[in-house]
Specification:
CATH topology of the largest domain: Serine Threonine Protein Phosphatase 5, Tetratricopeptide repeat
Oligomer: single chain
CATH architecture of the largest domain: Alpha Horseshoe
Number of domains: 2
Strand content: under 5%
CATH class of the largest domain: Mainly Alpha
Order of helices and strands: HHHHHHHHHHHHHHHH
Number of helices: 16
Low-confidence stretches: none
Largest sheet: none
Helix content: over 70%
Shape: elongated
Mean pLDDT: 91
């Protein structure tokens, strides 16, 4: 095995092992002897991007200069630019990838993420859905874009389609629960949060379904059921936020005692924080 092939093999193995610093260092060292080696540039860029250090784009910029017709290289450049906050440049890179592969659903999804214009994003995502209607990643991207555009009913439709394809997917159930609540479909929201109780068995996660059901019952003004759920949440949650929920709901049911409870806005913020925290715990890591 020649020196270049050995360096590439070691860099790839380190990347696959999650040793991104080592992978980037090996690839960079290999590039000293051959700065235009496409595969070393690709691994160096991917490793640097995985480190979230904000300086992966030079590797991919060099890569597209070396292999200008490589769709994946342009997509990688777009991803790196997007990670650096350069949305317009990222969109330009993704548009070049789309010129090379006009019907590629992944590139259409990337463009949907990169553009700052909701209508344009939804247009790209609709095209991606037409090309690959069963693609869950496309549906998730549509869901997120509809949510950003302030269209919860459309987002809920996408979430329901994801759930149909992945009935045991925690994120899909959570999306349906949150969006059903946003659309005042309270029975559907309650059913989804109850589903989370059995589906998400991770230690410490039980509290999130209880918080969701508290949100549903507050919306319904079902204060007794809200109190039951808040107390159940308090049994599995050590955070003060659940104590505040109990205090707020109890005040609605029994009246204010000596210590004033949190306000309705503060409770809404507590529940939103809990939901966001639950979501972050299930975000899938990006791969190479």
């Amino acid at each position: 095995m020649c020196v270049r092939e050995e360096a590439l093999s070691r860099a790839r193995a380190s990347f696959e092992a999650g040793e991104y610093h080592r992978s980037a260092a090996i690839a960079a060292e290999g590039l000293v002897g051959d700065p235009d080696d496409a595969e070393l540039l690709r691994v160096a860029g991917a490793s640097t991007l995985a480190l979230d250090s904000g300086d992966a784009s030079p590797y991919f910029s060099r890569l597209v200069a070396v292999v200008p017709d490589d769709v994946a290289a342009w997509r990688d450049l777009g991803s790196a630019l997007l990670a650096e906050g350069r949305s317009e440049d990222a969109a330009a890179a993704f548009r070049r990838a789309l010129e090379l592969a006009p019907d590629d659903p992944r590139t259409l999804v990337d463009l949907g993420h990169a553009t700052g214009r909701p209508d344009e994003a939804l247009g790209y995502l609709a095209r991606a859905h037409e090309r690959d209607p069963g693609n869950v990643d496309v549906l998730r991207a549509q869901l997120a874009a509809e949510r950003r555009a302030g269209r919860p009913e459309a987002a809920l439709a996408a979430a329901a389609e994801v759930l149909e394809r992945r009935p045991d997917d925690v994120m899909a159930v959570l999306d349906v629960a949150e969006l059903s609540l946003a659309c005042d479909r309270l029975d559907d929201a309650a059913a989804a949060y109850r589903r989370l109780r059995t589906l998400d068995g991770e230690p410490g996660h039980a509290v999130y379904a209880h918080h969701g059901l508290v949100a549903v019952e507050i919306r319904r003004e079902g204060w007794r059921r809200a109190l039951d759920e808040a107390i159940a949440a308090a049994r599995v949650d050590r955070h003060r936020r659940t104590t505040d929920l109990v205090s707020y709901v109890a005040a609605q049911l029994f009246g204010v005692r000596e210590t004033p409870p949190p306000t309705a806005q503060e409770v809404e913020e507590i529940l939103a924080e809990s939901s966001a925290e639950h979501r972050m715990l299930h975000v899938e890591p990006l791969g190479f």
